């Protein structure tokens, strides 16, 4: 019912403005009569008496029909700063609303003209005022920092562009929450916020920089602007986006009226004609553009595996990167508790408040190890060389672990629990030890399996079947196709190398080449099978895919449509013949329609397929 009422309200307002175009709000670009989200509505209109009377009459009919009442206390009107007092009085008399001045908040975002005071700091400080009064462990702080505190600015960053100083202040707030103690007591800030804003595999804590997120959201707006699929993009294009033609960029005097089709023929770009009109640098850029005149142009995000822009892909392309840390990959896992992983992360970077580190920070104190009373309290003595560390490193059932990275981190975790066990009770050590051993050896349990009989199935009579496959071995990327009839007889086979491409692209090129050969031999009814589940899904779903794979997929879809067929996924065992053909590593590409010209092992598998001899496939049974 709510949807029907909202639809009536929206269509009624639209019809109200279409009856008299002078009621539209005067602005450059598209004429938008209103913006609405659920029960929050923003109506954009002129202040003429006719427009006001028509709106008041429509609102009265709406309230009479549906029994809903417009809340005058929550409704208001906003006028230009140059509006006269008579205009203000007229609007207040007609609408019975209160006047509101800029800026105002709509759907949680400030609407203003010019600069606006950033409200990010107030939102984050109000949330922290409730957390600081509670006793939070290091793991709990990290969870709140990753999933709550870092997410507060995300909504506003989609529509605001705060200056760098705001990002620095927000970073200080988050860093203080991470390192400070409960009840607002200041702690030691062992590192800056910018150094922890990296993935855990790159020596960070798995939080994202607010500056990088803001840049990713700016890319999202650019992507939507270039797609031109909304009223917002129409407005922005007319008001702000000024397209500069290539002829103005080059600076040609008295340019000719030529079309792209005159520079692009059946064999591609006409290099000679391009060089006659463009500099060599631009000629190379133009030649890199792949055109398909029979298909519509479509935007592709290069950094995405799907070809469609996402915030994650934009952030990954714009953020600063570090080298991958093998040690940190072992720290952050499901075996260790989050607080233990955080402790090991600090230990590796010497961020533990032992006496030696405190002395280096200017705190004067006498240092003595509390467990042996013989050495000063340092990081290496406490975790590696001390008597208690050695005792717990060789006990607790860890004698069988080799001195590897995993063994080192497990020992550190147990030592930490033992350190806490001497304070909170002996149960802590045994509990953490059992947890670690259970997680380490749970994956070693044998899994149930089942065996399936898989064989190649011949097509129906008067139908031929195309099987394709590709192989990537070292630097050699090759593919092969087989076209067979209902008796399993060979119609054609080919082998081709594709250069330096990935597996999915090689699979796509193999099926495209096979379809081209099918068209050459004038196949009428066709079935296509591939053993790549990803490729079959991409072709069937119509997804865009990454660049330049998307162009190949579009050609494959067009050819499949011309044959009135689809690409079906089969198990690799049913595609064994083409697999043999793809990995044969021939010296040159070849195409044959003769059975005897194929390698011996390929001929043998073709004969087995013609008799539907099955292969065995082992599957893991999921519980």
How would you describe this protein?
The strands form six sheets. A six-stranded mixed sheet has the order 14-13-10-11-12-15, sandwiched between helices. Helix content is 45%, strand content 12%. It is extended and about 95 Å long. It has 26 helices and 16 strands. The chain folds into four domains: 2-101, no CATH class; 120-215, no CATH class; 327-333 and 343-442, no CATH class; 453-620, 2-Layer Sandwich (Nucleotidyltransferase, domain 5), CATH 3.30.420.10. With 623 residues, it is α+β, with helices and mostly antiparallel strands.
Number of domains: 4
What's the CATH topology label of the largest domain?
Nucleotidyltransferase, domain 5
User: Helix coverage percent of residues?
Assistant: 40-55%
Show unreliable segments: 394-407, 418-427
Strand order of the largest sheet: 14-13-10-11-12-15
Q: Can you identify the CATH class of the largest domain?
A: Alpha Beta
Number of strands: 16
Largest sheet: 6 strands, mixed
**Alpha carbon gap, first and last residue:** 44 Å
Structural class: alpha+beta
Average of the residue pLDDT scores: 82
CATH architecture name of the largest domain = 2-Layer Sandwich
Keyword list:
26 helices, single chain, six-stranded mixed beta sheet, 623 residues, alpha+beta, 4 domains
